[in-house]
Structures
1.
Amino acid sequence: MISLHSLALPTAILIVVAITSSLRRRRTLPSPPNPPCIPFLGNYLSLPVRQPWTTYAEWSKTLHSDVVSIWVFGRLSIVVNTKEAAKELLERRSAKYSDRPFPIMTEMMGWAWATSLMPYTNAWRVRRRILHKTFHAAAALTYRPHQRAEVHKMLKRVYGDPQHFAYHVRSMAASIAMTIAYGVMEPHESDKILDIAETSVTMFSNAVFPGAAVVNALPFLRHLPAWFPGMGFKPYAQKCSELAMDMRDLPWEFFKKGLTDDASGFSMASQLSSKVEKHHSKEDREQAMKDACAVTYAAGADTTVSVLSTSILALLLHPGVQYRAQQEIEGVVGRQRLPTFEDRDSLPYVEAVYREILRWKPVTPLSVSRSVLEDDVYEGKFIPKGTEVFPNVWAMLHNPTEYPDPEAFSPSASYNPMAKDEKGEDIIVNPEYTDGVISHPLPFRCGFTPRDEQAEILLSRLGEADYEGLLLLT
Ligand code: HEM
């Protein structure tokens, strides 16, 4: 959260805001319940900084309401904490709940081009169509050979350099997303762009949750000079904006200069060049393509890093689960090859592990917020047009009624001996996670060793045309 507690705005401004907000709130029905508010600031001072999704889930319990309100300087956000409420509001009433809030910081931080953040406009529809063409179910299958090749490359690197497994996982995720979007890029360039993207995503994350930046609630603040007390958000937004622009523009420039390797015309950028709607001007067309490619990279790389890091962490912490998954793979696949996408249906336990990983530590715990297009009433509570809506995915996936021990990682109740490091000593890992839109485990140690002689033989053949091998996380 950007600290703006030093904000020393004249009391007069606050009074104007308070009057405006009370006029806005004048209506007959109450809004969904909220934690105690104080005048002018609303819930601003009690907003959580660490893992906000857990606090919102607590508020939902304490207030006995699936949907809770958060007021910050007269601006209302609601958090939807149960699947039932999410289905009703976000699915059945999707026509009213599918806009995007577009807080002022999104624009100031240079993220206005990202489809997932754009309001429901024609520009959004053009980009959405492009993304649909690239990612509809059948199109997604065409990326499999490339994904598989990248996974093999990553395994080979982890085998040769297990200490830096996190780096290799990150490079693989970046390479998959980057290649889908632009074609194969030099690993060095791809890493550089991933650095930029990660920093920009983190900065963006820190400024979009309720109350994170007061300018979202009081847009006129952007017009005050940078030297004015509490204007720290301005240089912050400027820095983020530069990064977001680089993230969008640099890889596109690479593609245009022919510096990406895409001889088969496989990448989204190549495919799109000839396909985007004819009636748009060349500039519009190029802008839309550029945006769609960049959002693919921004949305695909960091999310994959997060989920793979959690997968490794979960298997490290639960060797029993790892063992059982390995047994299942061995029973179905044997020892002569690695599993493929085609084996998925025959591996129910591995499927359960994968789903449990996504449930245990959801990658986007508060998803991507939406905005209400017109006034609505839910269970007798008034939700005005323009309200920002946060689906609390974490709360839905940690609901004790559905998951009796929600914090436990339990695709099964198998035994859980302690993981060991290379010296045979217990590895103590306390899983801790970052707080942003995309939540990651903090760095942790993990060893990778071939599990037996057979695996060692297979791994030693890495680099041959079709190497085989399985790694054991210890
Ligand atoms: C576990 C991994 C992933 C998670 C949890 C995830 C989650 C999300 C979420 C929550 C959104 C916003 C949905 C919305 O409210 O509209 C989104 C959008 C998007 N994701 Fe993913 N994602 C993942 C992986 C990927 C990958 C691998 C790619 C592509 C390489 C990708 C491409 C996109 C794109 C292009 C959008 C924007 C779609 C639009 O705005 O129309 N995602 N993702």
2.
Amino acid sequence: MRINLLTLFVIFHCNNGNQNDNKVKEFLKRINSENYQNGIRPGFSKGEIDKVEMNMYINSFGSISESLMEYTISIFMRQSWRDERLRHNLTKLTLSYHYGDILWVPDLFFRNEKKAYVHRVIHPNKLITVSEDGRVTYSQRITLKLSCNMILLKFPVDTQVCPLYLESFGYTTEELMFYWKKKNPVQLNIENELPKYELKDMIFDNCTQNYLTGNFTCIKTVFTLERQYDFYIIQFYLPSILIVMISWISFWIDNEAIPARISLGLLTVLTQITQMSGLKNLSPAVSYVTTLDVWNFACLIFTCAAFIEFSIVNGVKYGVKDDKTTIEEKEQSRETDGVSTTMNHQIRRRHIKMKKFSCKM
Ligand SMILES: *[C@@H]1O[C@H](CO)[C@@H](O)[C@H](O)[C@H]1NC(C)=O
Ligand SMILES: *[C@@H]1O[C@H](CO)[C@@H](O)[C@H](O)[C@H]1NC(C)=O
Ligand SMILES: *[C@@H]1O[C@H](CO)[C@@H](O)[C@H](O)[C@H]1NC(C)=O
């Protein structure tokens, strides 16, 4: 009795398997026959607009280059549409990557792409599933190098907005329409961390284009990237503040200690210049002035001013001294000392004003 039941089960199971096999064979025969033309879009015979729903998973996001004005992302691009011709009576069908060439697929392209490829190791990274009602999901793994117009006036406290445009190449809006998936159209790999930026926001929008040849459907997502400037604070802002403060030490050194004041003044000026040239390798090569350049130049002015102040004080003191006779020298020198100290005070007051101004900056 038990053996009988087992045989029955096996037979039933095999029958079921055979049935499915036949259905799959019938389906594949249908799409390989002349009845299915992949050159014709699904809604053509009924005069309907084909609606393609897009969503993507960002596998990695990185290599943002300011000098080349581009960024690189690696994504799973998923497109989903309905093709009535592909209805079947199986629950769900997963087809191999070959069928990307056999079925009709939307003619998607990335408008701001510079270079892109579909990964092909070991086989082309494509996935096609067809559900019972003929809804096709087409997923590909693509790496894209995209152009992004960057404005670096506020560098290094800048925020960049980098778009990604998905557009149809051949079908106008009367034939094909792209939509973002309603919920979570772009998912992000949480393990992915950008080295220089932080991804703050993603905006989804319609960028349908009016060309002379017609209107072509286009959707876009815009990534808002905020630069992480902690590195620049430690590496540039704090050191240059310290250099300027060191240049002020010379105000406390006696104005007769000429070698000490000259070496301190020159050293701070030279260090500031070295700092500025060292920065060139790390800041983007743009022809306009960025905030960091302004900061550096202001610091250079402060260090130079401290040095010039000493030269003026020195000039005033010894210039007056030379005109006096030797008899009156002692008294005169005391007086000029007084003059120079008042001068010193005035200049010092002016410096304090400048310092306050720099704080406001
Ligand atoms: C699915 O099965 C139903 C009946 O079971 C049949 O009428 C229909 O034609 C089948 N559809 C396809 C696409 O084979
Ligand atoms: C985009 O805008 C066009 C008109 O400019 C409109 O016809 C189309 O439906 C819009 N697409 C989406 C996805 O909203
Ligand atoms: C394209 O769309 C604009 C409105 O957005 C419309 O005025 C124009 O007629 C359309 N052109 C074509 C060729 O459909």
